[in-house]
Amino acid sequence: MYIAQVDIVNRLTEEVTRQLTDEEGLGEVNTSRLDEAIASACAIVDGYCMGRYRTPFNPIPEIIKSLTLDVAIFKLYERASGITAMPEVRQNSYDSAVAMLKDISKGVVALAQQAAAAPATQSFAGEVKAKPAVFTRDNMEGF
Questions:
Q1: What total of structural domains would you count in the chain?
Q2: Which domain, by its residues, includes 89?
């Protein structure tokens, strides 16, 4: 996971996080819903980045943390009951995050991490045995 529950709470406040996750009306943050949003956001980020970088990221670049946080918060708003319209700031943050992820996947934006290794190729060290050459420079001299 690229972010923790506390990252979402710090960005939104505990009250807003509770409103987005407490569909049962228990008066507390539903940590299972936070985990679902985080897992979904991480999968989206990995989906965009896996063609160019090794995922999951380790260490995690700061931009990946930020993008994952924006996507996770969007997912919380998207899923929350009682929210009739997506707040414009959340929609804009999500749209910007997806645009950045597309740029990362195309190589327009580079992360401070090694690019994914080229597909592994096998190398074989072996001995080749063959009959002596029939036509050599020495016996072909003059032709």
A1: 1
A2: 5-106
